[in-house]
Each structure stands twice: as structure tokens, then as C-alpha cells.
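S.,

Sequence below, as promised.
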Amino acid sequence: MKVHNVIGGAGLRLHVREWGNEDAPSIVFIHGWSQNHLCWKNQYESMLAADFRLVALDLRGHGMSDAPLEAEHYTQPQLWAEDIAAIIDQLNLGRPVLVGWSYGGFIICDYLRAYGTAHVAGINFVGGATTLNKAALGTLIGPGFLDHVVGATGEDLPGNIEAIRNLVRACTYSQLSSDEFETAICWNMAVPAKIRAALLAREIDSDDVLSALAVPVLVSHGQKDTVVLPAMAQHLMALCPEATASWYVETAHAPFLENPTRFNGELSHFALGAHASETTAAKELSNRRDDVPGLV
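The prediction came back faster than expected:
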């Protein structure tokens, strides 16, 4: 495992870790609201590390990254986009597959809006959120989140703790082990309530970005998800008809935690396919350049 300090948007320091084969195609894991890189433990400690270069960050305001309390550090989409661009550039990741859980879906869309897909081989939305507005509340974003957001963003510590405990429970359909549950509580509580609130002080509509996607897309979603409802995935699929859907039965908001063997296998297959498609496209372009004088 390697640790990196990456300078992201507006000079903010991001804590980034990597595992696996540094010469292999890369996968970047982007966690959700009030989480951190530890949520991906079942991925970076799996056989994925044999075939890929695995990179996971702590988002700004989360984990071991810088966490200024002022809201403006979290409400500007360009800053989120610059964070992801900085990781890809400063770590020389080439064209990674981006994996975004929950709020990570917003951040992927922020990046795509600013930078496009020139440095992206594929995208895996995992319980991914792409729309945040009043109309989405109760239709795309469910009670597993809405019932706890007031307590999680308030300044009352007992209310914070109760809300976060209930939110972590809502993330899975099956009960986590005591070790997993306790660790998840710890990493959630490491995020100040003011920062949790600031992340929600945005109105987000990613429909135009999603409908223009021309890279492989995998949508992984639990059928029992009450945090980001299955309707969000269905909305995404309607905008990206070429995307592949993977529905997890008896699974809630975190399929990579509840069914890591299946999730890792599907991600491996998807990432290998995405990178193979990229290689094929590069070869075809090279052949066209050879056939057409002056084409560079």
C-alpha cells in the first residue's frame, strides 16, 4: 500500500491510497457522503489487486483529507472536478475506471461536466446518486437517508451519533459484523456535521452529462436500497440506454459490502472490458493514421 498527498481544487490536500499492480490498468474508488476510503476494504484486499492498480481517496472534508469547515469548499462543483482530475494527473493513472458510491455519483458527474471522458475508460455507479433537488426527495432519494439527515447535520452530538448509527444500518439489508459496523460508525463520525450539511447545500441535475456519455457504464444497485432508491438507477439507465445494469436482490445501499465476491467479479469483468475497448479503439486510430497520409 502506498500513501499519497494530492493537491486538489483550490490547493486542498487530499489523502489518497493505492494498492495492487502499479503497471496494470487503474480503478479509482470514490466513496459517499460522510464515508472514507476504508469502505472499500473488501475491494483493495481482494484479488482485484492482482490485476489492477487500485486507488481510493478520502474526499475533501472526509477521513484524512483536509477538512475546512467553510461551506464554499464543498458547494462548488468545479472543486470536486479538480480533485478527481488532480488524482488522475498527479498519480499518472492514464484512463482509469471511476467507481462512485452514492454521493460519489455526483462527483463523477462534476468531473465529467468539467473534463469530459478523455481520461476515463469507464464508469461504475454503485448505488449512485446523480440528481439532488426537492423533486428527488422521496422519489429518487429515500427514507434511509431522509429520516436521518437532520440529526446527522445538526450540532447536537447525541443526535449526530443516533443519526449516523441509523444511517449505517440503513446502508445494508443484511446485518454487518460487529467489527464492520463499529468501524463504519467511526469513519462516519470523523466528518464534522457542518461539512455533512455543506455537501447537501447544492442543487444537482446531471441528466445532460449522463445522456452524452460515450464510455462503458455499469450500474450496480441494491433492490432493497432505501437510501438512494432503485428509481435513481432506473432514471440513470433511461438516460444511458447502452449502460449495463446489475441488480442485487436482498441488498440495500452497499452491494460491495454485502456481496463483495459478486461485486468484485463484476467490476473486474467490466474494467477489463473497458480497458480492452480503449486499447482496441487506440489500435483502430493508429491504423487509420497509417492509412491516411498526414493524419496525426
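The longest helix spans residues 260-291.

Coffee later?
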